[in-house]
Design brief:
Number of domains: 3
CATH topology of the largest domain: Rossmann fold
CATH class of the largest domain: Alpha Beta
Order of helices and strands: HHEHHEHEHEHEHHHHHHHHH
Largest sheet: 5 strands, parallel
Shape: globular
Radius of gyration: 23 Å
Distance between the termini: 61 Å
Strand content: 5-15%
Number of helices: 16
Number of strands: 5
Low-confidence stretches: 1-7
Helix content: 55-70%
Length: 385
């Protein structure tokens, strides 16, 4: 590793959050200013998770020269790091209880034991209560780092026990510059991806580097704009769910098979060999975990579609109040201007409200196709069915 690269550790993957880095770097080097628990908040794609991992590495390592330790923490393999990013829709009580229990162990090799929960907003009230005691009375050398879009996503009892660090949202041009530097894609493609992703760095990178994702997004929005009757509602809703399903399968299938093969190799079973009864329960548990992950991946995909639809009708309502408004979906400007002239602002706002309600409904396990059909019917009449 070159001296320049070493100097970047562990903050090299944290981008556009200089104030936050300065705050956490100081806390890691000065025990007197270190809090026992932090909550890092910011919009999706703002870099909450990379910052949490970098802070964990700085806390566990013995100093700036302890490169090997920082590499292990950043890779998620250090014994003094416990990190949770749930594969399901919620963080279970079992997962929270396991983290709380582990938080009472003394550091085995580093300066601190660090507990990172990336999706703290996915805790139910009962699950949050499991963490309260651990956050109230942590051991002297344990530090908690929670991540969530907003401190309002957590219970007041949790918020009162953590130090909140709010991240800044980058500009489109900044995200585009980063994506071009990381991937080498054309700056025009990077700008479009950053704009369509609404400055979400991870999603912008995927759009910039995956043409199929860009095509699916464009086809979905154009399909919604073409909805004129019930037959269109049924067709477009089905297409959206199918596209999200295919996307989720593509993201999870390779990983699922690798996990299955790894499990069988670990217990000494060759490919194609008969699976003994003693291993079937382990395989069944793995498959259950994979099904939960697939469900979350599908919901995440549908949530991205709803975010894209919000951007579409946000553009419409902006045009209704200011015809020269800067658009997220500039490529659809002609259709958006036409819709802005045909609809009233009140109708557009009803649609935006229903998009938000559809997102909530999907979180409550409403059947996706029915939820989207209900939403698309709103586009026809401007009224909720």
């Amino acid at each position: 590793m070159t001296p320049a690269a070493t100097a970047e550790l562990p903050w090299g993957d944290v981008w556009g959050q200089d104030d936050a880095v300065e705050t956490l770097r100081a806390a890691a080097s000065d025990p007197a200013s270190l809090s026992h628990a932090y909550l890092i908040t910011g919009p999706p794609g703002s870099g909450r998770a990379p910052l949490a991992r970098a802070f964990a590495a700085a806390l566990i390592a013995e100093g700036a020269d302890d490169v090997n330790t920082m590499r292990q923490v950043l890779a998620g393999t250090h014994s003094d790091l416990t990190a949770l990013r749930t594969e399901g829709s919620i963080i279970s009580i079992k997962e929270a209880r396991a983290m709380a229990t582990r938080s009472y162990l003394s550091p085995s090799a580093g300066r601190y034991r660090v507990m990172v929960m990336e999706d703290a907003d996915r805790m139910t009230e009962r699950t949050s209560n499991v963490l309260l005691k651990a956050l109230e009375e942590p051991p002297e050398r344990t530090v908690w780092i929670l991540c969530a879009p907003s401190d309002a996503d957590l219970l007041p009892t949790i918020r009162s026990r953590v130090r909140v660090l709010r991240l800044q949202e980058p500009e489109v041009a900044q995200v585009a510059e980063l994506i071009t530097a990381r991937t080498g894609v054309d700056p025009v493609v990077a700008e479009q991806a950053a704009r369509h992703a609404q400055r979400h760095i991870g999603m912008a990178q995927r759009l910039a580097t995956d043409e199929a994702s860009r095509v699916r997004r464009d086809e979905t929005l154009r399909g919604v704009l073409r909805v004129r009757g019930i037959s269109d509602v049924v067709e477009v809703a089905g297409q959206i769910v199918q596209a999200a399903t295919d996307d989720a399968k593509a993201l999870t299938a390779e990983r699922d098979e690798a996990e299955r093969s790894s499990l069988l190799r670990t217990v000494g079973i060759a490919d194609g060999a008969r699976i003994p009864p003693a291993v079937r329960s382990q395989l069944s548990a793995l498959e259950d975990d994979q099904k939960r992950r697939a469900t979350r991946s599908l919901r995440d995909g549908l949530d991205r579609v709803l975010t894209d639809l919000q951007s579409l009708f946000r553009d419409v309502v902006m045009l209704q109040f200011r015809p020269d408004a800067d658009l997220i979906n500039r490529e659809l400007a002609e259709d958006l201007h036409e819709l802005a002239a045909r609809w009233t602002p009140e109708r557009t706002l009803v649609v935006l409200d229903h998009i938000a309600e559809t997102r909530d409904a999907l979180e409550q396990n409403v059947q996706p196709t029915l939820a989207l059909e209900s939403l698309l019917v709103t586009f026809l009449s401007g009224k909720k069915p």
